[in-house]
Amino acid sequence: MDKKTNIKDIELVLGDDVKNVFTDLIQLNINNETVNIRLAVKNVDNSTAKVSHNVIMTLPHFLRFADICQQSAEKIIKQIESQKSE
After folding, report:
1. Are 59 and 28 in contact (CB under 8 A)?
2. Are 52 and 39 within 8 A, CB to CB?
3. Which residues contact 45 (CB under 8 A, 6 or more apart)?
4. CB-based contacts of 54, cutoff 8 Å, min separation 6
5. Residues 6+ away with beta carbon under 8 Å from 58
6. Whole-number Å distance between alpha carbons of 6 and 48
7. Below-70 pLDDT ranges, the chain
8. How far, in Å, CA of 40 to CA of 53, rounded?
9. DSSP tag of 18
10. Contact (Cβ atoms closer than 8 angstroms) between residue 40 and residue 48
11. What is the model's pLDDT at position 8?
12. What pLDDT is stored for residue 46 in this prediction?
């Protein structure tokens, strides 16, 4: 069954067929208009990695994504620090 959430004024539908992606490595290639994000998984020997997905974003979309990541990182750090002090 599809799950629905809202992002701003847009209904986001997460279908049952959406694949989860695990990644060990992330590579960014940035040019004047886009950011290319490559997700890769290391091989067993840890000497090579195979790119599993390639995500291309315009610079404004990437900056929004980066802001979301920064906010999430700050929340995670605060949570870890509060658990250490307990």
Report:
1. no
2. yes
3. none
4. 36, 37, 38, 39
5. 33, 34, 35
6. 39
7. 1
8. 7
9. P
10. no
11. 77
12. 84
Distance from C-alpha of 29 to C-alpha of 26, rounded to nearest angstrom: 10
Structure tokens at 20: 């989860």
pLDDT of res. 11: 84
What is the maximal distance between C-alpha atoms in the chain? 47
Of 23, 20, 19, 55, nearest to 42 (Cα)? 23
Beta bridge partners of 37: 28, 55
pLDDT for res 58: 97
> DSSP string of the chain?
--EEEEETTEEEEE-TTPPP---SEEEEEE-SSEEEEEEEEE-TTSS-EEEEEEEEEEHHHHHHHHHHHHHHHHHHHHHHHHHHH-
